[in-house]
Amino acid sequence: MTLFRGRRILAGAMTLVAAAALAACGSKTTDANTSAGVTADVSGDTVKVGLLNSLSGTMAISEVTVRDSIMLAIEEINAAGGVLGKKVQPVGEDGASDWPTFAEKAEKLIREDRVAAVFGCWTSASRKAVKPVFEKNKALLFYPVQYEGLEQSPYIFYTGATTNQQIVPGLDYLKAQGAKSLYLVGSDYVFPRTANKIIKAYAEANGMTVLGEDYAPLGSTEFGTITNKVKSAGADAVFNTLNGDSNVAFFKEYKSAGLTATSMPVVSVSIAEEEVKSIGTQYLEGQLTAWNYYQTTPGAANEKFVAAYKAKYGADKPTSDPMEAAYVSVYLWKAMVEKAGAFDVEKVREASDGITFEAPEGLVTVDGATQHIAKTARVGKVGADGLITEVWNSGDPITPDPYLKSYPWAGGLS
Amino acid sequence: MTVLIGQLFTGVSIGAVLLLIALGLALTFGQMGVINMAHGEFIMAGAYTTYVLQQVVTVAGWSLLVALPVAFLVAGTMGVLLEILLIRRLYARPLDTLLVTWGVSLILQQLARDVFGSPNVQTRAPELLTGNIALPGGITVANNRLFILALAGGAVVALTVALRVTPLGRRIRAVVQNRDLAAVSGIATARVDRMTFFIGSGLAGIAGVALTLLGPIGPTMGTNLIIDAFLVVVVGGIGQLKGTVIVAFGLGVLQATGEYLTTLSVAKVMVFVAIVAFLQWRPQGMFTLRTRSLA
Amino acid sequence: MTEQLYGLSIRDLRVSFDGFTAVDGVSLDVAPGDIRFLIGPNGAGKTTLVDAVTGLVKATGSVRFGDRELLGRPVHRISRLGVGRTFQTSTVFEELTVLQNLDIAAGARRSWATLLRRRHGVPDEVAEALEVIGLAGRADQLAGTLAHGQKQWLEIGMLLVQDVRLLLLDEPVAGMSHEERDATGQLLEQVSQDRTVVVIEHDMDFLRRFARTVTVLHAGRVLSEGTVAQVQADPRVQEVYLGHPVDAGSAPTATEA
Amino acid sequence: MTTVARDPATDVDPTPPVEKPAAGPSRHRFRAAAGFALGAALLFAVAPLVLSDFRLSLLAKYLCVAMVAVGIGLAWGRGGMLALGQGVFFGLGGYAMAMHLKLADAGPGNMPDFMMLYGQLDELPLWWRPFASPWFALPATVLLPMAVAFVLGSLVFRRRVRGAYFAILSQALAAAMVILLIGQQGTTGGTNGLTDIQGFFGYDLDDPVNQRMVYFIIAGILLALLALTRHLMQSRYGELLVAVRDGEERVRFLGYDPATVKLVAYVVAAGMAGLAGALFVPAVGIISPALIGIVPSIEFVIGVAVGGRATLLGPVLGAVAVAWARTALSERFPGTWTYLQGLLFVVVVAFLPGGLASLVGLARRRTDGGRRPGPLVRLRRSRVEAG
């Protein structure tokens, strides 16, 4: 017994001594942030970049396609001579649909592999999880998915749409079509809840009424009740921010309840060509989506992208907005590095403002102040062939405004 | 009022889905004590069977009808393989079947991902089943829900009849009530176990076919269902189908009502609280085969 | 061992499962210090009677041990009133040692402070029980490695250290060799000096040698009661057992309901 | 009730046997002390020297998982309660700690960033306020999970909900907890959870030196928990717990209330999971619903099964090994980890129920020359329920 107690005290003492000794050297939160970033390893004739996507778990469905298009861009760039004369060497990691794993893998890519930039993440939760890692290590993340805005990190470039490039134009379109009332359906997570706050503020300022707002847990596939509520509310249109599997169940239920694109159109912001394929045109035909890119978007750049993608991954594989944004993000990084003449993160950031690229979605311009991208908003309609055709666009690229500062009605939101 | 009646129907149809996915478990867990976490993946196998068949039989209505027996066979065969390869070794330690079959379910999910790809696949439902019937008073009843209700009802009746009338059914019931006595009475319990597993897993396959009418068909579709299914069986009590049926519909209506009054999230939590409360009252579930071994 | 001896008094005991009445109005008295044997054909309700007395199944009527009513109390409370039992299948803790088994049995009244400390040495009552049941030499052996008879003795030993005043033993000599039966019988006689013992047994030879009184149950009712000789002479008992020869030494193999 | 004699040879015991002192207590104690010193040396001296900052922070994360595993080993390995909802307690501890650290980061009187973004709250919600004080938050990381475990445990154990029923209920609890947390995005951060934690009681967590300090605290607490668990396992209570696992009804007939016995182990395990969650937060900088649902809760169990559920060190080594394998394999073969994880579950639980520890036991017995009655003798399960 005595021996036992002794050990316990020993352990406690060791902990305290070790902690105290080390704490004495550690910096306090009040100190100026002195931690130096990790510099990328560019000593050889290659430069490493990190690809951080979920290859397993629930998000793999979407994120694998993003990984594919990033790989396509890297291949094209390498075939054309690389970046600053160096071949780009991708280092892939699996985020496994688990946010802390994303943080762990981000740290690994930055500190162990010493990559020059990381491309990836899909969900807001994974981005929020890795954001401190990139900020702490002063490393770059290119995030390719439309998101809820209200964020601006010096070490993240957002190549997908922020709210004023997707949701607000979508609402503008509905308003122009004469919609007076809306029903909001979304998955229970950050993006839909934030999007719906914006929608409610917009509706209030524009004389529309929101008749109801429902959330389903992520992955939920039981939409009987929600459809019932939607139907009895009788809104002019439904604004849908559901994610993933839930969309399939929702649209099957929607059709069963006798609701159609003509009687009550649904505008979705998370359904791209890939999702249309897995839900089935039987259920989606005629419904609306709001994005910045469709496979059918006209232009030489897109024809080239679609052809290259299908050649590499199969003729039955559609291209979609997040894939395109991911593809574009690699080219934007290349342009920034070349303008800066170096892979150094701070120099790349300084060089970013005003970089343009003739993307498949049309001309995009990097806004150095927000590190978002000016892009054209598009509303499309799902056709019988599973492709989405544009029915409206914003004309010019919309300047990103992640905090909606230029919209008076959004004053209370951020 | 219209909405309330509509909600009642929604509740019943949620119940029918719960019943379909829980029925097989009521047999394998309720009667054999095996906690098969791969049951959800057997459902998935049924759904993918529908998808594959649709590539061959292109008329949606026929492919769905053909898929029912085929999915039963496919999932049932998977169940028998699982029983022979693993579960047979584990009858003495039921809790461990939970962990082993969870491992199996991970493997099956990844297998589905590698074979069919990560994205969900789509099947075409026959047009008849995508419509609805309008009742007086503005109430609509979805055809696919009616179909599933009928399917669930049919499965329960078929299972009940099979258990009551057929020689196999009598043997299954004998083994459930007293395995040792059945064994000394000359019943090959191992074979009965295998058949029970075949039927239980086969029912999961049928549930999978039905679910293609409602939701996504993908590698992870089973994981969302398995806990709900187990809760139904646990609350329903073991050894009898009656409890499973009542509880499935009860929970369905409870969830639909809760969801209508609050939100789906709150409704799910409500259902959980109700279950804990219920088990306080009847720890062995609603109906339990009263044998002294359970006293 | 100066504690007072109590008797068991059962009045109009009824137990039913889903409409089937397993015990149907049994009344019987076991005198303090008696060794009472309960016999009867399969399905007579013997084990159910013991289940009811120990709180394992719900029952109506009255069961008094000394002046305490047992019915309606939870199992562990009844146990703390000094009523202990064994089961047909041995139920020692096979992955604990003999000593640990006995120590646990002895400790139901221990405080948490005691429980959370390690055991030091062998408590007196445990040492005593080890001697009585003849397992002193095997104290550190895992109970699962004991021979069948030794397990049954360990069970009885656990009841002794538990300091029960009423022992209810369900077929204690089933599957034992002749030598083991004798040893068990002597153990019962020794135990009954300051305790009351009720034994369910099919083994007629064992019964003839060690029973002081016998109650015959049939179809949930008391059929006959008295000394061994009285019961054997009872024509109703002979009738019931006709076609059910219960030979000495034949282990029961069928389910008793 | 079965009186049909079961053949002891075929009636395989479900749970691996309890370790038994091999020799006299003094030798045993010496061995334990030596093992403990060795573990301390490895954790405090070797690991920090050998591993890079990044790998050391990963090890800190693994050790948190190991803490949960120690508790599961006690509740499941010794007590037979397959706690499949430990993520709930891990989460409660983690959230309690993260709430305090978020408030500390924000500074007195301020609100955490996400609340203003997503909640648009004018003031801190009432139930957040106590967490501003470390004197409330720190004890809460342990006491809150213990209290929840106490309430749930007293409800279910007293009503004799056990075995599969208990496992499934605890799983459902994890699912319900996740849904609740996600639904309250404004005050809990929703699916994002609480992220971007900067400081730990005034120390900047970005500083590698402070990360190292966090690692040492975690290692020290893990050792202390091991010592506590070892004591519990070897106490009379530990023996009683095994007895309850193997024959709950029998223990009841001995005059104990098995519900209380189980409750203690369950509550202690919950406390350990809570502590682990609390320490996970400074080590990794995030707590989110993704860490506490059904899947992570089952994953806590796999390490325990692999290492050896009924042993003291098995769960710790198993948890660290599985977590390490996951990182290593998913770095090299992303995507195939799922297969391996599944196979690991199947192979270990089906064919090696005693875990890797039973291999060690096997080897040791071989060297002992089979002198003592090996617990490997397949014992038959006490079938008290059959009474």
From TrEMBL, chain A:
UniProt-listed NCBIfam families: urea_ABC_UrtA (TIGR03407)
UniProt key word Cytoplasm: no
PANTHER family: ALIPHATIC AMIDASE EXPRESSION-REGULATING PROTEIN, PTHR47628
Annotated source species: Micromonospora radicis
Pfam families in UniProt: Peripla_BP_5
Gene: urtA
Keyword entries, A-Z: Signal
Signal peptide start-end: 1-23
KW Zinc (keyword) present: no
Name assigned to this protein: Urea ABC transporter substrate-binding protein
Highest taxon of the lineage: Bacteria
From TrEMBL, chain B:
Main location (coarse class): membrane
Keyword match Cell membrane: yes
InterPro entries: ABC_transp_permease (IPR001851), ABC_UrtB_bac (IPR017779), BCAA_transport_permease (IPR052157)
A Gene Ontology cellular-component term: plasma membrane
MF (Gene Ontology): transmembrane transporter activity
Protein localization: Cell membrane
Key words, A-Z: Amino-acid transport, Cell membrane, Membrane, Transmembrane, Transmembrane helix, Transport
Membrane topology of the entry: Multi-pass membrane protein
TM spans (from-to): 6-27, 59-82, 94-112, 146-163, 197-217, 229-254, 261-281
GO biological process: amino acid transport
Family: Belongs to the binding-protein-dependent transport system permease family. LivHM subfamily.
Protein name: Urea ABC transporter permease subunit UrtB
From TrEMBL, chain C:
This protein's GO CC annotations: plasma membrane
Pfam families associated with the record: ABC_tran, BCA_ABC_TP_C
GO molecular function: ATP binding; ATP hydrolysis activity
Keyword Thylakoid: no
Source organism of this protein record: Micromonospora radicis
Coiled-coil ranges (or none): none
Every ABC transporter domain range: 8-244
Keywords assigned by UniProt, alphabetized: ATP-binding, Nucleotide-binding, Transport
Protein name per its UniProtKB record: Urea ABC transporter ATP-binding protein UrtD
Domain of life: Bacteria
InterPro entries xref list: AAA+_ATPase (IPR003593), ABC_AA/LPS_Transport (IPR051120), ABC_transporter-like_ATP-bd (IPR003439), ABC_transptr_urea_ATP-bd_UrtD (IPR017781), BCA_ABC_TP_C (IPR032823), P-loop_NTPase (IPR027417)
PROSITE patterns: ABC_TRANSPORTER_2
UniProtKB/TrEMBL annotation, chain D:
Primary location group: membrane
Region (Disordered): 1-25
Subcellular location field: Cell membrane
The protein's name in its UniProt record: Urea ABC transporter permease subunit UrtC
GO CC list: plasma membrane
Molecular-function GO term, any one: branched-chain amino acid transmembrane transporter activity
Protein keywords: Cell membrane, Membrane, Transmembrane, Transmembrane helix
InterPro entries: ABC_transp_permease, ABC_transptr_urea_perm_UrtC, LivM-like
NCBIfam families, alphabetized: urea_trans_UrtC
Coiled coil spans: none
Membrane topology: Multi-pass membrane protein
Ranges that cross the membrane: 30-50, 56-76, 83-101, 135-157, 164-183, 213-232, 253-273, 279-298, 310-327, 339-362
